[in-house]
Design a protein that fits this description.
This protein has 131 residues and is an alpha+beta fold. Helices cover 34% and strands 18% of the residues. It is built from 4 helices and 4 strands. Strands 1-4-2-3 form a 4-stranded antiparallel β-sheet. A hairpin with a 2-residue loop joins strand 2 and strand 3. The mean pLDDT is 88. It binds zinc ion. The site of zinc ion has 6 residues, from helix 3 and helix 4.
Length: 131
């Protein structure tokens, strides 16, 4: 008979109740990370913290409005920024975010999605025949 195994499941991408106790229980202080806030299952806002994801979520202005959150702790502010950009572009129309994610402080790191759009647009423009 095969022994049952316990597998670790990364809870970071599972929607969780957006309550202070859940945030405190799951996210240590002082880590960079990205988050997605949802309301009734609909993505509403993406954001990140370059310094402390836990503090950002505990003090978030949408607490009480959003009822779920998804998060990912990141190894650096740059990683958090790249993930935020990916979620921002993927979920664009559903979000309350009005502006593109800001680059991490003191870093010039282009958004890879926008950068690709610019490259594709330039390629299209350069390959188009004059009218
Ligand atoms: Zn972008």
């Amino acid at each position: 008979m095969k022994r049952p195994t316990i597998e670790f499941v990364n809870a970071a991408r599972v929607p969780l109740p957006f309550r202070a106790g859940v945030v405190r229980e799951l996210i240590p202080s002082g880590l960079a990370g990205c988050y997605l806030l949802r309301r009734v299952g609909v993505p509403r806002y993406v954001g990140r913290s370059d310094r402390c994801l836990r503090a950002r979520l505990l003090n978030h202005p949408l607490r009480g409005l959003a009822d779920e959150f998804v998060f990912d702790v990141c190894s650096s502010p740059e990683s958090a920024y790249l993930l935020e950009c990916a979620w921002y572009h993927r979920l664009g129309g559903q979000l309350r975010n009005r502006i593109h994610p800001a680059q991490p402080e003191e870093r010039s790191l282009p958004c890879p999605v926008c950068d690709e759009l610019v490259r594709a647009s330039l390629a299209d423009a350069l390959s188009a025949r004059p009218r």
